[in-house]
Amino acid sequence: MLGAGFMARTHSTAARLAGAQLDVLAASRPETSRTAAAALGYARSASPEELLVEGLGVVHVCTPNTTHLDYARAALLAGSHVICEKPLATSGADARELADLSEQRGLVGAVPFVYRYHPMVREARARIASGEAGTVLTVSGQYLQDWLLAAGDDNWRVATDSGGPSRAFADIGSHLVDLVEFVSGDRITRLVATTRTVHEERAGQPVHTEDAVALTLELAGGGIGSLLISQVAPGRKNGLVLEIAGSHESIRFEQEDPERLWVGRRGASLLLRRDPDTLSVDAARLSNVPAGHAQGYQDAFNGFVADAYAAVAGEHPEGLPTFRDGLRAALITDAVLESAEAGTWVEVSKA
Fold it and tell me: Both 169 and 198 in a single domain?
């Protein structure tokens, strides 16, 4: 494990449940490494440099964004499979390097776009893939948070030297566009975006990353859509919502109420609750408790890590987000920044 923060804890819980041996943890400082290793149940601590040359079975990269490229590259070159937090890298070119390298070396590279692992997201995907929802006409979505609402709120993600050139979009917008493509089964081909930085300074330092993003998009299959991403939306803690309108029905998923799926039809609407006895095969696979017993974020993360480890073992789990998916998100982020700067439509590069 590279990292000692919230994501390292979340990854460690999922790794332990998937049967991993928690061998070594490395953080930026020796004392932090020792403390976190003991608290999270790792056998020992080390420096990042020491960990990366060991050729461990799997290395999890849960460090600031601008370190992902060097850490993931070093782990792959040492022969380790890699699970790297998003964004995979802070540019499409760097993300492509990692995707290519993992494939060239025959190693698993996975990115935790874990909202794919809510069973009702898989149910939405199955309805569209089967044709039940009809042809995708429109997409609308939002991902709203308020944890950076005030000028006094600060975090390492704000600074470009640790968070990279994009903040709100790379951090949470990447999840939303991944869901758009994963659930719809289609690809975003071009977009036009605008960004806003609400607070020009935080903690006495100038801010060069965005607080909010709005964009309009087109899909390869002809659908159109609009997305809103914000980390300055009062009262919204983790408000990820995706609604896809097909020619037969609309499907709406809300991450803060992940146990249900709204299905809208012209004559009547349905509210589907998670029930493994009635869901599609893939959705039922990810239902680890009976209907009526709520599953949430950590359950989704557990499912993702279990699938990543299954891939390491030679299996091919359905819907595992790979470094190639991380590249897609990075390319879309590049397009968002380019469009916001130029004020024009921008084509999204192919992965």
Answer: yes
Place of tokens 């009526």: 292
SS3 sequence of 111-142: CCCHHHHCHHHHHHHHHHHCCCCCCEEEEEEE
Instruction: Give the Cα separation of 34 and 39 in Å (integer).
Output: 9
pLDDT in tens, 281-322: 999 999 999 999 999 999 999 999 999 999 999 999 999 999
Residue 101 sits in a domain of what CATH number? 3.40.50.720
For the chain, the average pLDDT equals: 97
Q: Of 158, 154, 143, 150, which Cα lies nearest the Cα of 64?
A: 158
Does the pTM exceed 0.70? Answer: yes
CB 226 within 8 A of CB 175: no
Structural domain contains residue 67: yes
pLDDT confidence bin for 351, thresholds 50/70/90: confident
Looking at the structure, tell me whether residues 106 and 158 fall in a common domain. no
* Residue 349 per-residue DSSP state: P
- Looking up tokens 């990543």 gives 308
What CATH code is carried by the domain that includes residue 277? 3.30.360.10
Q: What percentage of the chain has pLDDT greater than the value 70?
A: 100
Q: Are 233 and 153 in contact (CB under 8 A)?
A: no
